[in-house]
């Protein structure tokens, strides 16, 4: 009877899909974005650099606004 292993294969395949979906959703909830594949030290360094650049830009903009309010610009 060749149909007998079909239910167990469906259960196993379904379990793989459910676990993969759970892993994806936990990653998405924890970090707010999908996990990048093959991420290495360079990618992490670039992310940190980008964060520093954005923070610097924000500080410069705040300083410009403060100087305009004081009438020095």
Per-chain topology:
Layout: H1 6-31, H2 41-70
| Major sheet | none
Number of helical stretches of at least 4 residues: 2
Please tell me the overall pLDDT. 91
User: Cα-atom Rg, whole angstroms?
Assistant: 25 Å
Helix/strand-derived category reads mainly alpha
Poorly predicted segments:
none
Give an account of the 3D structure.
The structure is a single chain. The protein is mostly helical and 73 residues long. The chain contains 2 helices and no strands. It is rod-shaped, with a radius of gyration of 25 Å. It starts with 5 loop residues before the first helix and ends with a helix. The model has no long low-confidence stretch (mean pLDDT 91).
Can you summarize this structure?
This protein is an all-alpha fold and 73 residues long. It has helices spanning 6-31, 41-70.
Characteristics:
73 residues; mainly alpha; 2 helices; 77% helix
């Amino acid at each position: 009877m060749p149909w007998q292993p079909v239910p167990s294969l469906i259960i196993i395949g379904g379990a793989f899909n459910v676990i993969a979906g759970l892993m994806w959703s936990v990653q998405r909830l924890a970090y707010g974005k999908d996990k990048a594949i093959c991420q290495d030290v360079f990618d992490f360094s670039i992310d940190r650099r980008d964060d520093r650049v954005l923070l610097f830009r924000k500080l410069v903009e705040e300083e410009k606004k403060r100087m305009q309010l004081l009438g020095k610009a």
